[in-house]
Amino acid sequence: MPIGILTKIINMIKQYYIFDIKEGYDDVYGDIIIVRAGIIHDNLVSEIPSSWDIFFLKDTPQITSEIVSLAHSNGGRWTVNFSEFRESRVELEGKPQTVYYHKSLPKKRNFWSRLLGK
């Protein structure tokens, strides 16, 4: 496998520590699970909430069970493969933030696709 492809794959996978899991509601997707997690650097993680990343996942019993199980086992560590998420800017708790939508949530339709029915 060429080194460039291997580097790209490695950069898409990151280790996180799960701090918080809660139910939420998204205007487009409805019921979701919100996971707040801090990236692990050299076996250390920031406990400052503003430095945590936020992940939105579909609220299903299976996904909820899996993420809660991960938080309770493996020392709260979660291996995130970013190829399974889409980055988006949303207003959360009154301020714009970057969040990561899991691909189990359908992609938001933009203005033109809604207008043209695509």
Fold and architecture overview:
The structure is a single chain. By secondary structure, this protein is an alpha+beta fold. The chain is 24% helix and 47% strand. It is built from three helices and seven strands, in the order αββββαβββα. Strands 1, 2, 3, 4, 5, 6 and 7 form a seven-stranded mixed beta sheet that branches. A hairpin with a 2-residue loop joins strand 6 and strand 7. The longest helix is centred in the middle third of the chain and has 12 residues. About 5% of the residues have low confidence.
In short:
With 118 residues, this protein is of the alpha+beta class.
Keywords:
118 residues; 7 strands; 3 helices; alpha+beta; seven-stranded mixed sheet; 24% helix
Using only C-alpha atoms, the radius of gyration works out to 16 Å
Helix content: 10-25%
Beta-strand residue fraction: over 45%
Q: Could you tell me how far the N terminus lies from the C terminus, measured between alpha carbons in angstroms?
A: 37 Å
Major sheet details: 7 strands, mixed
Instruction: Return the string of H and E elements.
Output: HEEEEHEEEH
Q: Give the tally of β-strands.
A: 7
Regions with little confidence, pLDDT below 50 for 5+ residues: 5-10
Q: Rough shape? A: globular
Structure classification: alpha+beta
SSE blueprint:
Blueprint: H1 3-12, E1 13-26, E2 30-41, E3 44-45, E4 53-58, H2 61-72, E5 77-81, E6 85-92, E7 95-102, H3 111-116
Parallel strand pairs: 4-7
Antiparallel strand pairs: 1-2, 1-5, 2-3, 2-4, 6-7
